[in-house]
């Protein structure tokens, strides 16, 4: 049954089974705020990984929020609910690009130092590793950050980004190979 | 399938030691932010202030106005304070690492905050370190001279290395930090690098990680981590992988020769030694050559890394920059586009 009631009933009867993202997107488009919250929960890691590959760390949280707010406002323009992940990934890259196109903002509001960015403190090793990953081609850097920072598995990255599993596997393996080489086989 | 790849893919199989270590160290950077308030976000556009104000009574409007004025005053004071504190931590602080580095103008005070125009000088036993929060760290080696060019409030950080060596570890976003030398400008794209101005006038840049862009006149070079470039007084060098020793020697020989048959032969040796990983070196040689020599470079580069659609031999040989950029993008090394965007965003700086 494809109507909204059927979907709700299915969720209620089997809470352990994750609702397909396309269904959640449809619910979000119909105005269910909790559905958008669910999309945020599922896709925040992907968006964070994409932004972390491109922006100073101190800017990533604000940029991630901007990505989801834009998505919320423009969700109606998405034609294929199954394409939400790829659409959101493109939106995240656009937000990152826009950030670099704002010279006024860059001049007036310099980023916080990375180690003060979110009050959690940051190990120098982590920042060094982040820098090494950012030096890789963007496709490798994004995928590796989703895997190593956000803790997503390869199949999960494929499902979220809309990339084929094979593409994700290639990005992970080639990116990791380059990273191994850059780190000389270890992180110390 | 290589050992460790199942673990990298879905954490199955035997734990890959490096992947596991990276997971542990990088978890600190994981996304942990609360979601936005969707209702307020959506309502922000839908609930027009004009509708609300039409319904408000005059007294409530007066109270709201007074509150707004107080808010503005408090806000202005807060931002003035914030601006002041930003200023105090947006200047390079100089620390002595060894010996007695000096300012060109006199003694170097302890924990000195560098002002635009000031120069630090080191002699044989001296080392100094410059730090700037949010930008990074620069260590000045013995027998060096380094000047701060731009005020921090400009948002960009420019130093001039007049002689000697610096090692820079830059954490700022790309294109914020740059170093001018007598022969070129090195623009940081997020990396660790060493830059030397040698007594004979040559300049050597070695990039450990990330990217550095070099600019001289209308020539530019992009140097990735694990590569180095040596420029002479006469021309910008061509970056080469540090590991490709034979190729580096061949490029050095080629660049030291004047135009003529011998230089053409040296170029042939460079092309013979180049491998697929050296495609970026050949890409730079396209701009560094013209005529028949550019054609030779094109043909060898096309063998190692075939040009993408819309990049034609005729166009590349004619010096079509857009085609060259497309070819660069197809090499999988990142885009050259940010460089040109930067020139649009900062025309005055680019013209300097």
Walk me through this protein's architecture.
The complex is a heterodimer of chains A (188) and B (352). Chain A has two domains: 19-107, RNA polymerase sigma factor, region 2, helix turn helix motif (Rna Polymerase Sigma Factor, Chain: A, Orthogonal Bundle), CATH 1.10.1740; 111-188, Orthogonal Bundle (Arc Repressor Mutant, subunit A), CATH 1.10.10.10. Helix content of chain A is 69%, strand content 0%. Chain A has helices at 4-13, 21-29, 33-52, 57-74, 84-100, 103-108, 124-134, 138-148, 154-161, 165-183. The longest helix of chain A is centred in the N-terminal third of the chain and has 20 residues, at 33-52. Chain A is globular, with a radius of gyration of 18 Å. With 352 residues, chain B is of the alpha+beta class. Helix content of chain B is 40%, strand content 23%. Chain B has 13 helices and 16 strands. Chain B has a 16-stranded mixed beta sheet that branches. The chains are: A mainly alpha (188), B alpha+beta (352). At the A-B interface, helix 3, helix 4, helix 6, helix 7 and helix 8 of A face helix 1, helix 2, helix 3 and helix 12 of B.
Summarize the entry for a quick read:
With 188 residues, chain A is mainly alpha-helical. Chain A folds into 2 domains: 19-107, RNA polymerase sigma factor, region 2, helix turn helix motif (Rna Polymerase Sigma Factor, Chain: A), CATH 1.10.1740.10; 111-188, Winged helix-like DNA-binding domain superfamily/Winged helix DNA-binding domain (Arc Repressor Mutant, subunit A). Chain A is 69% helix and 0% strand.
């Amino acid at each position: 049954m494809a109507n909204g009631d059927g979907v709700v009933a299915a969720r209620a009867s089997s809470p352990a089974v994750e609702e397909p993202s396309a269904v959640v997107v449809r619910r979000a488009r119909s105005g269910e705020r909790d559905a958008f919250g669910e999309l945020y929960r599922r896709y925040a890691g992907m968006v964070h990984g994409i932004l972390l590959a491109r922006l100073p760390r101190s800017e990533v949280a604000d940029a991630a929020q901007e990505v989801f707010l834009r998505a919320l406002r423009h969700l109606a323009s998405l034609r294929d609910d199954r394409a939400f992940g790829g659409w959101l990934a493109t939106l995240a890259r656009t937000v990152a690009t826009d950030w670099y196109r704002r010279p006024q903002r860059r001049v007036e509001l310099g980023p916080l130092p990375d180690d003060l960015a979110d009050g959690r403190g940051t190990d120098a090793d982590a920042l060094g590793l982040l820098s090494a990953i950012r030096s890789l081609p963007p496709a490798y850097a994004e995928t590796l950050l989703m895997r190593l920072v956000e803790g997503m598995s390869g199949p999960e990255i494929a499902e979220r980004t809309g990339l084929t599993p094979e593409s994700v596997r290639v990005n992970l393996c080639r990116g990791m190979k380059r990273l191994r080489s850059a780190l000389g086989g270890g992180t110390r | 399938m290589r050992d460790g790849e199942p673990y990298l893919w879905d954490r199955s199989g035997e734990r890959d030691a490096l992947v596991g270590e990276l997971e542990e160290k990088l978890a600190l950077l994981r996304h942990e932010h609360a979601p936005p308030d969707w209702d307020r976000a959506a309502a922000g556009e839908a609930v027009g202030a004009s509708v609300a104000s039409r319904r408000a009574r005059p007294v409530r409007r007066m109270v709201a106005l007074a509150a707004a004025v107080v808010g503005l005053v408090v806000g202005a004071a807060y931002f003035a304070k914030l601006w002041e504190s930003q200023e105090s931590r947006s200047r390079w602080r100089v620390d002595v690492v060894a010996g007695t580095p000096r300012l060109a103008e006199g003694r170097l005070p302890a924990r000195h905050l560098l002002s635009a125009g000031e120069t630090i000088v080191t002699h044989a036993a001296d080392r100094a370190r410059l730090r700037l929060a949010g930008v990074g760290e620069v260590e000045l080696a013995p027998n060096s001279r380094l000047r701060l060019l731009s005020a921090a409030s400009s948002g960009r950080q420019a130093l001039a290395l007049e002689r000697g060596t610096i090692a820079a570890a830059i954490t700022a976003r790309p294109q914020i930090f740059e170093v001018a030398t007598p022969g070129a400008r090195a623009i940081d794209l997020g990396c660790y690098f060493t830059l030397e101005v040698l007594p004979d006038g040559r300049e050597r840049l070695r990039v450990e990680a990330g990217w550095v862009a070099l600019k001289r006149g209308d020539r530019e070079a992009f140097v990735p981590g694990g590569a180095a470039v040596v420029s002479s007084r006469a021309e910008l060098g061509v970056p080469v992988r540090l590991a490709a020793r034979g190729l580096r020697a061949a490029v050095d020989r080629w660049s030291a020769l004047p135009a003529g048959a011998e230089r053409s032969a040296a170029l042939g040796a460079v092309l013979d030694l180049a491998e697929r990983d050296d495609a970026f070196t050949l890409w730079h040689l396209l701009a560094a050559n013209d005529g028949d020599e550019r054609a030779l470079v094109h043909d060898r580069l096309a063998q190692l890394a075939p040009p993408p659609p819309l990049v034609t031999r005729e166009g590349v040989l004619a010096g079509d920059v857009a085609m060259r950029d497309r070819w660069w993008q197809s090499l999988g090394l990142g885009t050259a586009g940010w460089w040109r965007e930067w020139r649009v965003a900062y025309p005055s700086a680019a013209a300097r």
